[in-house]
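Case 427 in the screening queue. Each case pairs one protein sequence with one candidate compound; here the compound is F0G. For every case the pipeline is the same: read the inputs, emit a complex structure as tokens, and attach any notable structural observations.

Predict complex for case 427.
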Amino acid sequence: MQKLSCIACQKNHEISDNLVVCDCGGLLDVVQPLEELKKQDLKSVFDGRLDSHELPDSSGVWRFRELLFPAKKIISRIEGNTRLYPAKKLSDELGINLSLKHEGENPTGSFKDRGMVAAITAGVNAGCENFVCASTGNTSASLASYAAEAGVNGIVIIPEGKISFGKLSQALAFGAKVLQIDGDFDAAMKLVNELGEKFDPANPAESVYVLNSVNPFRIEGQKTIVFEILQQLNWEAPDWIVLPAGNLGNTSAFGKAISEAFELGLIDKKPRIASVQAAGANPFYNYFKSGWEKFEAVENAETIATAIKIGNPQSYLRAKRSIEDTNGVVLEASENEIMDAKAAIDASGIGCEPASACSLAGIRQLVKSGEIKKGEKVVGILTGHLLKDPDSTVNYHLGKLEGIESKAANQAQQIEATVEAVFKEIN
Ligand code: F0G
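Case 427 output:
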């Protein structure tokens, strides 16, 4: 049976306690019973479920439920099952074997659905009725959708005027209570943590259950991005997995998934993680560069990639472990690097929101520095859909983004409505 263990004071709790944080305030891990799990042929179990049209097997999260946690009642929107696209043109350009895992193909258009479905399931099983998160947008859209599915109260706390309309529209439309604060994501997160401290396991229905990635069940759900990639690659590990980083829940989940898959013998080598921050919101990068000497929050984080405009990430200790366990690296990408990478992903016909493009920006840096070697198998994670933030795309192509060079702009042309005018443009 799985247990909850505090990464600060090492105290163990029952998995059925469904706690979000330890009594000491420390972050919790779900500890997997690896020896027990080794007795099963998990690859066959997981592969055997691929043809199923029935829940829970048909969900790309619950398909891997043995490696998550037990739950009496399962919530699902048949999330996951996202494509792993071979990126032929980019592979040729870079001299590597690149695939892009498009997590924007989840039900609400971002990877958040995988962690959200797991954490809301844990909370519902604990008898909770009020669910809250702070968000730069995607988590709020996901919470709103899953709260509607589960029939519980969804409450999202967001920085006013700082999240993209695509995401705000989802939270409003799905019926969550949207509370805007005059402050940034970090201020919203602080408020949510204060609400979480008041959680009373003896009185769950009156409490507020926190669904940010401080919640250990979120991490368990997000591990399935890695499990699904490994399954899509016939359980042959890639050399690298590269992903954007903000609040660091995903980096934490990826390291945990890789270590567990390796310990269980599902793969015979560990892919290296590269976690990529925006240069204007780079506390984890600075922490890595200091040789893990000093973690310092960044005040007034700023980047066009609003999803990762975060100065004080909550999961930095778990994420540090992920980088260490996988011999990984942390990078930072400039605004121009992010938007040029986005333009290249968009032009390949797949597309993503700005934060997601950190993956390709990071891959380009690692190829240039020689850390990614020619021919290596690399998976880049696209965390959110292009349509989450269409303003950034259109303004890039119109050359209207301050400080951005728009090197790959595809400008719309004004023409007369005649056949000749069309032919003139295409010849
Ligand atoms: N990419 C996208 C599109 C995101 O929305 C986020 C985080 C990240 C990357 C970074 O992931 O936080 O696990 O390191 N968005 C959160 C939100 C903070 O509120 O939607 P992380």
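Case 427 observations:
- The CA atoms of residues 161 and 180 lie 9 Å apart.
- DSSP finds 15 helices and 13 strands in the chain.
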